[in-house]
């Protein structure tokens, strides 16, 4: 269960893992659980353990045949009614069912081990692209169009963001604000038009370059089951605990660094989750920041102070802030309404 839970976390959080360059950490975590399940498999498939289950399975088959034959005989001799015989056979299957289930577990573990070995040997083709020598000086959208199943999401969108600028993309849900993030990160292809970075077509730029340059908070951002510290430091080698504790204070988070977040963030509120995600994006300390609805779910009592801190933090950064709230867009020096 731990192994499959870990795999599920990795798949669900693939965007975070890639953006924060935390792939090596996930490989180590996966290797840890893989080694544990392989050791378990070795014990389960040891000679004596396997022989025990083979004998147990033969005993189960013999027992079921005996009960079935005995019940039929009792019906034939008029000692039991047909209903009584059916109940007796049914109860015998309930008794032997767990033995069949244990045998199926052995088979499932064997198949899982084979699948693990197969997946680890897969040769995944990496996307080719250029690593620019400089950081991001500008990003330009030139008559960008994007549609899904014939439904137009973006039409002839053109704008440029230069180094040091802060642009707010304002508009209601469904106007393509989050689509712009996906286009910049090359998660979805353009329908037509052109996006350039430093006057170079985005199509020719490596995704790894984009992830190395841009800190992203998206609507699909997630937290891992683990400590607050582990989530804040995703992909970072080493951490300054004083800086992390200061960030918790600034974002009004009532946690210690070692507080453990449950699966699906079940033991924290939505507002606390959003603040941890925002803090993680800022701790990445990258010069280009994309924030998609950064204060969504944050209560009014904390929003003003966090917004003030965010404005100061972004002073020497380049930022795209996607929001439908005008007070959030007000910290930017340029507004584009969609």
UniProtKB/TrEMBL annotation:
Coiled coil: none annotated. The chain crosses the membrane at residues 48-68, 80-102. SMART domains: AAA (SM00382). It is a multi-pass membrane protein. Gene3D superfamilies: ABC transporter type 1, transmembrane domain, P-loop containing nucleotide triphosphate hydrolases. Residues 1-111 form the ABC transmembrane type-1 domain. One of its GO terms (cellular component) is plasma membrane. Signal peptide: none annotated. It is found in: Cell membrane. Keywords: ATP-binding, Membrane, Nucleotide-binding, Transmembrane, Transmembrane helix. SUPFAM superfamilies: ABC transporter transmembrane region, P-loop containing nucleoside triphosphate hydrolases. Residues 139-338 form the ABC transporter domain. Pfam families: ABC_tran. Its main location: membrane. GO terms for molecular function: ABC-type transporter activity; ATP binding; ATP hydrolysis activity; ATPase-coupled lipid transmembrane transporter activity. This is ABC transporter. It comes from Anaerobranca californiensis DSM 14826.
